[in-house]
From TrEMBL:
Chain segments annotated as coiled-coil in the UniProt record: none
The STAS domain, residue ranges: 5-115
Species of origin: Actinomadura luzonensis
Residue stretches spanning the membrane: none
Record protein name field: Anti-sigma factor antagonist
Listed InterPro entries: Anti-sigma_ant, STAS_dom, STAS_dom_sf
Pfam families (UniProt xref): STAS
Similarity comment: family membership: Belongs to the anti-sigma-factor antagonist family.
Lineage top rank: taxon: Bacteria
Gene3D superfamilies: STAS domain (3.30.750.24)
Length: 120
């Protein structure tokens, strides 16, 4: 049996928040991509927060999904915000330069505060 992700979605402050748990690699990246496509933006505005606090590993396949989500958010007038990024995924984001384009926050609450502040 191949590994899978645990994915949940909620709305907070008119923002779609997707919680990801598990490694995002070539076997699970399509699952994350499909989930984001199915749940974003939903009933919320154009901002998207992906909670990565339980993502210990991210490979290039997962990075492609996040870059695609970033582009989708930008097309809809928002941004992709990553929250609680662990050291291994953070290293990949920094190494590839993606960290310069994607907003990263300490946790979901910090991401939501930044979004709220940008609206005023």
């Amino acid at each position: 049996m191949s590994p899978s992700l645990t994915l949940t979605c909620r709305s907070a402050a008119q923002v779609t928040v997707i919680h990801v748990s598990g490694a995002v690699d070539s076997t699970t990246a399509p699952e994350l991509d499909d989930y984001i496509t199915a749940h974003y933006p939903g009933e919320c505005g154009p901002e998207l927060v992906v909670d990565m606090g339980e993502v210990p590993f991210l490979d290039s396949s997962g990075l492609v999904v996040l870059i695609r989500a970033h582009g989708l958010a930008r097309e809809r007038g928002g941004d992709l915000h990553l929250a609680a990024v662990q050291s291994s995924p953070a290293f990949l984001l920094a190494l590839t330069g993606a960290r310069e384009a994607i907003r990263v926050h300490d946790d979901v609450e910090a991401a939501l505060e930044a979004i709220t502040a940008s609206r005023t």
